[in-house]
Each structure stands twice: as C-alpha cells, then as structure tokens.
Amino acid sequence: MKKHLFPLFLLLIGANASAQQDFFALVGKDTPNIVFNDFRAIDLANGNSGEKIFTADTSAKVFSQTRNGLVTEDKNAYNNAQAMNMATLAYDASNNNLVYIPMFSSNIYVLNAKSKEITLIENNVARVSSCDINSHFTRMATGYDGNIYAVNNSGTQFLKISRIGSQYVVSDLGIITDDASNGKNSFTTIETGFGGDMIADADNNFYIFSASGNVFKVSTKDLKAKFVGKISGIPDNYSVNGSAVNSNGKVVIASAKGAALYEVDLNTLQAVQLPGQENLHIYDLASKYFANDKAVLNNVFANLDIYPTRVDEKLININVNDKSVKGNIKLNIFDLSGKNVMDQNLSVKNGSLNQQVYLKNLVNGAYLVNITDDSGKVLLNKKIIVTK
C-alpha cells in the first residue's frame, strides 16, 4: 500500500512552536482510587502542567442536546459532567472541544475549552453498567476523519461520535475481536488488554495502549485488534492510563499512579522518560496530532490563518494580518494522496486579507491547505476536514 505522498516542500518545513494549547490531560486527585480532579493543558517542552480548563469544583453549565436547554445534574450520581470516575478524553481541535465519557455512564460530554460550556449528549447506544468492568469506556481519541471514537474495556462496543451541523450523533461500529495471531496477548482479557488509552494514525487506524503496556493495532475495516508488542523502558509496575501523539509524531504515555511521563517510539515501542512533574495522576491524554501524519499542522506566520478547520458549509475564511505578507499569495489544496485538487490566487493589501473561499467539488474527507507567497515560500500548512 502506498504511503501518503505529499509534495517534497511540505515535508521539509520545520515545525514551529505554537502558542495554541494542543495537549491535554484528565487529572485525578492524589488517592489510590480514581477520583476526578480536573482537565488541564500540558506543556510537553518541560513536562509541567498548565492551565486548568475545568475542575471538579467548577460551576458547570450543561446544555442538553436532547432536551434543547440547560439542565441541572445530580453531582452525586454516576452520570454527571463532574463524575468522580472518568478515564476517557479526546480533543476536537476543529471546534476547540474536549470530549469525555464518565466511566460508569453512557452520557457523553463536550466541553468547550474556551467558553467552558458543556453539551450533554444523551444516548442509548452505549450500554454501560457500573458493576460491569467489561462495559466501562476507558479509551477515546479523535480519528483522522475528524470523528471521535471510544472503546470499552472488552471491545464489545466501538463508538463513533460524529458532529453533523450543530448536532452530535452516536453510532456503534461493532465488536472488536482478537487477531488470530495474538495468542496469550489477548485484547479482550483484563490482564493483557483492558484499560489504558488509544491514539489514531493518518490512515484512520487506532493503536490501543492497554494498562499493562501492551499495544494493539485496531483496523476499522475488519475490527480486528492485532498485538503489536509491549512497551519497553518503563518500570515493571507502570500502569499506562493515558496516551496521545505529540508534535514530533511520538506517543506520550502517562499513569494514574503519579509516575513520570514517557515518550514512546511507535515503531520500536521503546520508551524514554520525559522531564517535569512526576506526581500527576493522569487518567487520560488527548492531543490534536496523529501518528504517521505527514501533514505539517503549524503555521509559519502567527497572523495568517484559515478557519474553520471542520468545514460544514464548503466555505473557509482566509485571514491575513501581517505586514510582512505582501502582494499575491496562492492557495493550494491537496488530498491525502498528495494530489492538488484546488488552487486559487489571492491578493493581500497592506498586510491584510479577510476572504471567503468556496471549496467547490471537494468530497467529504481530509485535505491539506497550503498557502505560498509569490516567490513560492510556504506561509501556512493546515489540515481541514470537509464534512458536507
């Protein structure tokens, strides 16, 4: 199978640091049991925690999608936005949302990281029982197609959470079973396959990191979980509870036991300890990055951007507010095979441009938007998802 063949100039661009928060953790209290404390940003440059986005004590404003209005939840119940037991988190970068599911509940919550408002997605698709460990959702990630995916402990439910317009729709993709080659390293047993977290790659496959340190590759085509190997370089008693891809394409793992963060090479499964805090009890990690992704997601110019990145109405806005950007610029859009599917010339006057571009003839899927100046210098690369 051919890999994604992006034009060479896209692959040679250096990844600049971005001020935008793009790595998040679900953090618990310093107790032996799972007790939710907060969602917070993580600064992987120094391994330290940053802004607390939402805590167990935050005044929650919850809007029910089903009831189309604000609701008051019982904070002593399993199914509330600040439930004690939580172990799933995904980051929807297109909408700056944190998505999560309380462990003992079928409710899905969408927290806007900026406004702190919460949307409750009540659904009867997930079948969760507080007393059945098999049914608890402990792994969640954003797929390369822009949808959110979640898997319960035993793999008997593989959920897809899609945003259609302003509404979220939940569907069950089926049962994930063991690949015939797995042998004693079963995805569906407590000792080798339960718990942990998952990440997505650029081919919309998923890698599930179980609490035991085993790694399974899940194909969405046949719903088989194939044992890839076991992480090396971590302590024997390390419990892997969170995983997310960083901007270097490596996987960062974290533990609920307050241990250090580690960076894992997905090809070798060799782990290297990261600097920073070692007393964080992390139940899940989330980021905007994907494994094996050749697209460069960071802007070269801070004051040049496109939005939205999840395109529902076939329109994107090009915004320039940078005196160093002058004259004509060119917009190119590539599909994931590297084929140029659209281009358009734009004119920047006095370092300023605010223009809508119609994405004619683009079918649903992921694309890379590339903007260059009249000399061919790359000004911006950014991935977008066209949904209709």
UniProtKB/TrEMBL annotation:
Extent of the signal sequence: 1-19
tRNA-binding keyword on record: no
Pfam families: Por_Secre_tail
Domain of life, source organism: Bacteria
Keywords annotated in UniProt: Signal
Annotated coiled-coil segments of the chain: none
Domain annotation Secretion system C-terminal sorting: ranges: 306-385
InterPro entries documented for this protein: Quinoprotein_ADH-like_sf (IPR011047), Secre_tail (IPR026444), WD40/YVTN_repeat-like_dom_sf (IPR015943)
Protein name: Por secretion system C-terminal sorting domain-containing protein
Organism lineage string: Bacteria, Pseudomonadati, Bacteroidota, Flavobacteriia, Flavobacteriales
